[in-house]
Design goal:
The complex is a heterodimer of chains A (336) and B (338).
Chain A: E1 3-16, E2 20-33, E3 37-41, H1 48-55, E4 63-68, E5 71-73, H2 77-80, E6 84-87, H3 99-109, H4 115-123, H5 139-151, E7 157-161, H6 169-184, E8 188-192, H7 196-202, E9 205-210, E10 213-219, H8 220-227, E11 232-236, H9 242-251, E12 255-258, E13 263-266, H10 271-280, E14 285-290, H11 295-303
Parallel strand pairs in A: 3-8, 3-9, 6-7, 7-8
Antiparallel strand pairs in A: 1-2, 1-4, 4-5, 9-10, 11-13, 11-14, 12-13
Chain B: H1 2-13, H2 15-38, H3 44-78, E1 111-112, H4 113-145, H5 148-155, H6 159-196, E2 197-198, H7 204-235, H8 238-262, H9 273-282, E3 284-295, E4 301-309, H10 310-334
Parallel strand pairs in B: 1-2
Antiparallel strand pairs in B: 3-4
The complex binds adenosine-5'-triphosphate and magnesium ion.
Adenosine-5'-triphosphate binds next to strand 2 and helix 1 of chain A.
Keywords (chain B): Membrane, Transmembrane, Transmembrane helix
Protein name (chain B): ABC transporter permease subunit
Transmembrane segments (chain B): 20-37, 121-142, 163-193, 213-234, 241-263, 315-332
C-alpha cells in the first residue's frame, strides 16, 4: 500500500529569546498508508499539533523529510493543498460571519463549487443553523464547522487534530461513523485525539509520540499485542491448590500475584506453557484467560504517564526514547 | 483570480468596513453641506449691503474721533492731568479716510472655486486616508488574530500570494470608494461655487492642476491604506497598527516636536511627518526661520526659508511604504503560524 503521509527525522525547535529553546520534535518518524484511519496519540505537549502544523506548512521545520500524497512538502504544498483537508487544534473563525459565509469564502478561495458548502453543512449537522453568526455557536458547533471546512475540498487526506473536542456523545458517535464511511470511500484519515476508546474503535493503525519522538506505531491490534504485558488469569479446579501452583510458577520464573480464588500471572509468552507446567505438578486448570489490554493502558505504559498516587505528574514528564529512558523532568505544569 | 474575488467579497461583507466607509462619507458630506451654508454668492445686493456697512463704520469712526477730540480739548482747557491719554495737539485726532475702510471687509464669505477648491482636497484625502488606514488594518489584523489567516493558508499555502492578493483586494475596494467620492467632491464644490460663489477664471490649466492635486490625494489615501494593512499584518493584530500610529504620532512626532523646539533646532517642522503630507498635497511647504535675518536690498529683514517640495515627500512616502510593506512580506514568508 502506498504511503499517503510520510515523515522522517522531523525536527522542530522553538526558540524564545527569554526562555531558551525547546525541542518540540526531536527526530520524529511517521507513516500513514492509503485508505487507513490512523490515530495520532501522545500526552499533552508531546508534539502532535506541532507535527501537523509543520506538515501543513504553517511551521518551518528545522530538519527532516516529509511527503504528502507522494510529494515532498513543504515545497510541493501548493500542488497537494487541494487534496488535503485539515483542522488544526480548535480552529477559530471570524465571529461575525455565518457558517455558510465562512465556508463559502473558503470555497471561493479554493475554487470549490459553491454547492459543496450545503453538502458539508448537511454532513456535519449544521444545516439548520448555518445562517447564524459563528459567534453564537457552542463549542461543539464550532468544532462541527471546523470539520465541515476540512471536508469542503473533498480531500484525499483528511487531517483532524482533536476533532472530538467538545462534541456531545451523539456527535462523537456520528464522527466515528463519518470517519469510517470516509475511509471506506477511499479517504485517508489522520486523527489526533485523547479519547483512546474512540481511537481503538475506529483506527486501523496508530502512532504514539512522546516528547517529540515516536514510541510505538503500527496496526492497533499489533501494538496491543506487543505491549500486552503477557497478563494471564488462572483458576484451578480446587482453590486449595493455589499455593502449590504459585510455588511452581514462581520457580519457573513467572511473576505471580495471588488472589483468593485465582492467580494473576505476568510475563507469560505462551499461555499453553502454563497449562503444561501446572499439569506436570498434577494441578488442573479450570480457566486460563489472557487479559486483553486496552489502548489506554498501553498508552500509559508506553508514554510512562500513568498517574501515581500522591504525585502530581507535570507535563513533559513522559517517556523519552533514545535518551535515558527515564521520564524527563523539564519545565512546569499547571500551577507550577 | 478566485482568491482576489473572494477577498474582495470578504472585505465588503465585513461590517467594520461598511460602517467605517459610511462614516467617512458622511463626514465628507457634512463638510460639503457646511461649506454650502457658510458661503454666499456676491451680487449687487451683497455689494450694496457691504458698502452700507462700510459707510456705517466710517460714520462710527467719525463720531468717535469727534467725541475724543472734544474730550481732549476739554481736558486741555481744564488743565487736568491726562496721563498721556490724549496727544499734545488735539487736532491730530482725526477719523481714518473713508477709502481705507473697504467694503470688501463686509462681504459675506464666498466660495471661489479657482482659489479655494484645492485646499478642500486636503481634508478629503485625510478623511479617506484615515478610513483606509483603519479598514486596512482591521481587514488583515482581524484575520490574523482570529485564525482566519491560518485557515486560508491551509487552502492557499503560497503565503506571499495570499498577502499580496489581500492587499490588492483592499486597495481595489478603497479605490472603488475613493474615485466616485472624488468625482462627487469635485461636483459638489463646483455646485457650491456655482450657487454660493464663483466659478470664474477656472481655465483648463487650473483644471489640470486641480486634477493632479486630486490624484495626489488618491495616492495618499492608497499609501495610508497600505501602511495600515502592512503594520497590522506585521503585528498580527489590528491594534498593532493603531497602537503603532499612536506611538509614532504621540511619542515620535509630538515628543520630537517639543524636543526640537526646546533645542531650538532650525526648521523643526522639517522633521515632522505632517509637514511632508502637507507638502505632498500643496506641492510646497515653505518653512521660515524667524531667528535669522536675510537682509534685502531695501534693508528689510526677511526670515531664512526652506522649501519642502512634493518630490521630497514622494521619496519619503515611497521609502516608508517599501520598508513597512517589505517588512510585512518578509515576516509573512518567514514566520511560524501558531
Ligand atoms: N509557539 C510555540 N512557541 C514555543 N513553544 C511551543 C509553541 N507551540 C508549541 N510549543 C511547545 O512545543 C511542544 C509541543 O506542543 P504541541 O502543541 O505540538 O503539543 P500537542 O502534542 O499538540 O499537545 P496537546 O495534546 O496538549 O494538544 C510543547 O512543549 C509546547 O510547549
Ligand atoms: Mg495539540
Amino acid at each position: 500500500m502506498p504511503a499517503v503521509l510520510e515523515i522522517e527525522g522531523l525536527r522542530k525547535t522553538y526558540k524564545s529569546r527569554r526562555r531558551g529553546t525547546r525541542n518540540a520534535l526531536d527526530g520524529f518518524d511517521m507513516r500513514v498508508d492509503a485508505g487507513q484511519v490512523h490515530g495520532f496519540l501522545g500526552p499533552n505537549g508531546s508534539g502532535k499539533t506541532t507535527t501537523l502544523r509543520t506538515l501543513l506548512g504553517l511551521i518551518r521545520p528545522d530538519g527532516g523529510r516529509m511527503t504528502l500524497l507522494g510529494h515532498e512538502v513543504p515545497d510541493a504544498l501548493p500542488t497537494v493543498a487541494g487534496q488535503v483537508g485539515a483542522i488544526v487544534e480548535s480552529p477559530q473563525f471570524f465571529p461575525h460571519f455565518s457558517a455558510r459565509d465562512t465556508l463559502s469564502l473558503l470555497a471561493g478561495a479554493g475554487e470549490v463549487p459553491a454547492t459543496r458548502v450545503d453538502e458539508v453543512l448537511e454532513l456535519v449537522g449544521l444545516r439548520d443553523r448555518a445562517g447564524e453568526r459563528v459567534k453564537t455557536y457552542s463549542l461543539g458547533m464550532k468544532q462541527r464547522l471546523a470539520v465541515a471546512s476540512a471536508l469542503l475540498k473533498n480531500p484525499k487526506l483528511l487531517i483532524l487534530d482533536e476533532p472530538a473536542n467538545g462534541l456531545d456523545p451523539g456527535g462523537i458517535r456520528e464522527m466515528r461513523t463519518l470517519m469510517r464511511t470516509l475511509a471506506e470511500s477511499g479517504m485517508t484519515v489522520v486523527l489526533s485525539s485523547h479519547i483512546l476508546g474512540e481511537i481503538q474503535l475506529i483506527c486501523d493503525s496508530v502512532t504514539i509520540i512522546s516528547l517529540g519522538r515516536r514510541v510505538a506505531f503500527g496496526p492497533v491490534d499489533e501494538v496491543l499485542a506487543q505491549h500486552s504485558s503477557g497478563a494471564v488469569r488462572v483458576r484451578l479446579e480446587a482453590v486449595s491448590d493455589l499455593p502449590a501452583a504459585t510455588d511452581a510458577l514462581t520457580r519457573a520464573g513467572i511473576l505471580v500475584t495471588g488472589h483468593p480464588d485465582h492467580l494473576m500471572l505476568a510475563g507469560v509468552d505462551k499461555p499453553a506453557s502454563v497449562t503444561r507446567l501446572l499439569a506436570e505438578h498434577n494441578l488442573y486448570v479450570s480457566e486460563l484467560a489472557p487479559i486483553a489490554v486496552d489502548l489506554e493502558s498501553v498508552f500509559l505504559e508506553l508514554t510512562a504517564t500513568a498517574p501515581v498516587p500522591g504525585q502530581h505528574r507535570q507535563v513533559d514528564e513522559s517517556m523519552k526514547v533514545g535518551g535515558t529512558g527515564q521520564p524527563g523532568a523539564t519545565g512546569g505544569g499547571w500551577g507550577a | 483570480m478566485s482568491l482576489f474575488r473572494t477577498e474582495l467579497r470578504r472585505l465588503t461583507k465585513r461590517r467594520f468596513t461598511r460602517y467605517m466607509t459610511l462614516l467617512g462619507l458622511l463626514v465628507l458630506a457634512a463638510v460639503v453641506v457646511g461649506v454650502f451654508f457658510t458661503n454666499q454668492k456676491i451680487g449687487a445686493d451683497q455689494l450694496a449691503r457691504a458698502e452700507r456697512q462700510a459707510d456705517q463704520q466710517y460714520q462710527d469712526q467719525v463720531r468717535w474721533s469727534e467725541q475724543e477730540r472734544a474730550a481732549c480739548e476739554q481736558a486741555k482747557k481744564a488743565g487736568t492731568a491726562t496721563d498721556g491719554r490724549f496727544p499734545d495737539d488735539c487736532s491730530v485726532i482725526t477719523p481714518p479716510p473713508r477709502e481705507q475702510i473697504e467694503a470688501e471687509w463686509f462681504l459675506p464669505s464666498t466660495f471661489n472655486f479657482r482659489e479655494t477648491f484645492d485646499e478642500t482636497l486636503i481634508p478629503f484625502a485625510a478623511i479617506l486616508g484615515l478610513v483606509g488606514f483603519v479598514v486596512g488594518a482591521s481587514f488583515v489584523g482581524a484575520e490574523w488574530s482570529n485564525g482566519g489567516m491560518m485557515n486560508l493558508l491551509l487552502w492557499r499555502p503560497n503565503r506571499l500570494t495570499v498577502l499580496v492578493t489581500k492587499l490588492a483586494a483592499l486597495l481595489t475596494g478603497i479605490l472603488a470608494v475613493t474615485l466616485p467620492a472624488a468625482v462627487l467632491w469635485f461636483a459638489g464644490f463646483w455646485a457650491i461655487a456655482t450657487f454660493r460663489g464663483s466659478t470664474e477664471k477656472v481655465t483648463s490649466g487650473v483644471w489640470q492642476s486641480l486634477a493632479l492635486t486630486g490624484l495626489r490625494g488618491v495616492v495618499l489615501v492608497l499609501v495610508l491604506t497600505t501602511i495600515g494593512f502592512a503594520l497590522a499584518s506585521l503585528g498580527r493584530h489590528t491594534a498593532m497598527a493603531l497602537g503603532g500610529v499612536v506611538a509614532v504620532m504621540v511619542v515620535g512626532q509630538f515628543g520630537l516636536g517639543i524636543l526640537l523646539s526646546m533645542a531650538s533646532v532650525k526648521f523643526a517642522e522639517a522633521w515632522l511627518l505632517p509637514t511632508y503630507v502637507m507638502a505632498w498635497m500643496t506641492k510646497t511647504v515653505t518653512l521660515q526661520n524667524w531667528d535669522s535675518c536675510n537682509a534685502t536690498y531695501y534693508g528689510e529683514c526677511k526670515p531664512e526659508t526652506v522649501d519642502i517640495t512634493w518630490q521630497q515627500s514622494s521619496v519619503l512616502l515611497s521609502v516608508g511604504v517599501v520598508v513597512i510593506l517589505g517588512a510585512s512580506l518578509w515576516a509573512m514568508r518567514r514566520r511560524d503560524i501558531t
